[in-house]
Amino acid sequence: MREDVSGPVDLANWVCPMPLRDSPTIVMGHGGGGAMSGELVEHLFVPAFGAAAEAGMGDAAVLTVGSSRLAFSTDSFVVKPMVFPGGSIGELAINGTVNDLAMAGARPLALSTAFILEEGTALAEIAQIAAAMGTAALGAGVTLVTGDTKVVDAGHGDRVYINTTGIGVIDEGVDIRPQRASAGDVVIVSGDIGLHGVAVLSCREGLEFGTTVCSDTAPLHGLVAAMLATGADLHVLRDPTRGGLAASLNEIARTAKVGVALVENDLPIPAEIRDACGLLGLDPMYVANEGKLVAFVAPEDADRVLAAMHSHPLGTRAAAIGVCVPEHPGMVVAKTALGGTRVVDLPAGEQLPRIC
């Protein structure tokens, strides 16, 4: 049914679906992991922090303490709905920080947990989420060692927000960081992309795609350990969460000042994800994942790394999807099924807000 627009139009209350880049206030796009998130950090937080800010702040910092190297990471979780097919905010809060540590090549050791709870939230809901966190921590082999709880007035939160911070140990000889991406590197993704974003969206909006799409949330440090055990020199690892695979690849390309050339037909995209994204007008490359990684590996090591990934439960669908090239530094391009080439740009914000 066509909406009646014959009356006066209140332009002041219009909402643009694309966040305005020059907005004087925070908009949802600032939390999407794309260009707006980067600008917020670069142009507001880093200058405000001044000399107290460590250069090159990333998902996980690498700190040298005595003779040991530690990875240190923190993350916050605001997913809506809190429970979705395949998981909940509880699993995400554990696995997300474990994975940030793993992407630095670390063995996760311990996590802190902090909760911001809205007044009126059912204790049974909080207990369910806390139990999921405990189960996920045991599964990942990490200890929950400290934490905090705050409560905000009813109507000033969204039931439960969670922050987790983690530390892990990096073994000698492991040097994994985006600056090491080099021309010739093979780009590998550990499995099917787009599952988490579509699972959350389907639950949030009550959509049905003929099958249940479940989130892929999982701790990835075991898969990373199997990759390192091959003796290969892993240059870069990243878990493509907010902004999806496209955001992660663009961030790596820009940091290392290299180009990335993908082959669209080589991307592992399940039929149900492709169909759902086609129906909703989404690009699977920009949809969040919570149990996948992308790796940049020297060409001589790519086959043995892929073999190790295929032998691990979380890497059975791993695939080489492209290469690192000296051309078009800082840019990601993809060869399409029709033989053309398209630019895979960094998203401005997030196609699906409140996704993790």
From TrEMBL:
<feature type="domain" description="PurM-like N-terminal">
    <location>
        <begin position="58"/>
        <end position="170"/>
    </location>
</feature>
<protein>
    <submittedName>
        <fullName>Hydrogenase expression/formation protein HypE</fullName>
    </submittedName>
</protein>
<dbReference type="InterPro" id="IPR016188">
    <property type="entry name" value="PurM-like_N"/>
</dbReference>
<dbReference type="InterPro" id="IPR036676">
    <property type="entry name" value="PurM-like_C_sf"/>
</dbReference>
<dbReference type="Pfam" id="PF00586">
    <property type="entry name" value="AIRS"/>
</dbReference>
<feature type="domain" description="PurM-like C-terminal">
    <location>
        <begin position="183"/>
        <end position="328"/>
    </location>
</feature>
<comment type="similarity">
    <text>Belongs to the HypE family.</text>
</comment>
<dbReference type="Pfam" id="PF02769">
    <property type="entry name" value="AIRS_C"/>
</dbReference>
<dbReference type="InterPro" id="IPR011854">
    <property type="entry name" value="HypE"/>
</dbReference>
<dbReference type="InterPro" id="IPR010918">
    <property type="entry name" value="PurM-like_C_dom"/>
</dbReference>
<dbReference type="InterPro" id="IPR036921">
    <property type="entry name" value="PurM-like_N_sf"/>
</dbReference>
